[in-house]
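During the second half of the funding period, the structural biology subgroup turned its attention to how the target accommodates small molecules. The most pressing case was NAP, which had performed well in the primary screen but for which no bound structure existed. We therefore specified the complex as follows and requested a full 3D prediction, including the ligand pose.
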Amino acid sequence: MEIIIVGATGILGKAVTDSLKINHEIIEVGLKNGAVNADITSLESIHSMYEKIGPFDALVSTTGAVHFGPLEEITQEQWQLGLNNKLMGQINLVTEGLKHINDNGSFTLTTGIISNDPIRFGTAATLVNRAIEGFVTSAALEMPRGVRINAVSPTILEESVEAFGPYFMGFDPVPASTAALGFVKSVEGLRTGEVFEIRGAI
Ligand SMILES: NC(=O)c1ccc[n+]([C@@H]2O[C@H](COP(=O)([O-])OP(=O)(O)OC[C@H]3O[C@@H](n4cnc5c(N)ncnc54)[C@H](OP(=O)(O)O)[C@@H]3O)[C@@H](O)[C@H]2O)c1
């Protein structure tokens, strides 16, 4: 399969790329790094990415920014970060991608474990993650031509503990290579409209 991975140069994206490149041709997309550059906050940029790449079989998104901070201090701009970037960025990857994806292709988006296991300072992220999961559940019903759509919801990655560990006390981190299995399951499997949670022991 020809698979576009948006966010391929990140911590999660690198592991997903390593897993999928064994059997597939990967087009690595990043904001500044990667073979192709695109900015998911710009519809025009997403459009030109798809024009450049042409028809494809699967789109995997392992990108998306959200604000973390105390609820009472979140500004309008900070709410908008997650809404414009992780939420609408990934939705626009799907709606624009539908114009280019081959029959029986698939989309796989990224959410995060705090969708269902909320933490202090994580309200903006939980909001966005659940919205993405709601989108996936409903959009699956209207996917044309056998196209599938799922989300993967990883817990905190071992590789990110140094940066975000204090937010995730009591969570069991997993290596990014374990989280990558959820993406392989989505791309290679038959299921659609689902959220694959990747948890550690807790
Ligand atoms: N890390 C974790 O523990 C963890 C756990 C659960 C869920 N997640 C979710 O997984 C996703 C990726 O996290 P990560 O830790 O792997 O992030 P990361 O290491 O910062 O990587 C981000 C990736 O996205 C690309 N990117 C950044 N802004 C972009 C934009 N506007 N348009 C297109 N691509 C853009 C980056 O490209 P460049 O290299 O060019 O900058 C890079 O490839 C996020 O949605 C995050 O919430 C992460």
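Two results from this model are relevant to the next phase. Residues 6-13, 30-34, 38-41, 62-64, 86, 110, 112, 154, 156-157, 160 surround NAP (CB under 6 Å). The mean pLDDT is 98.
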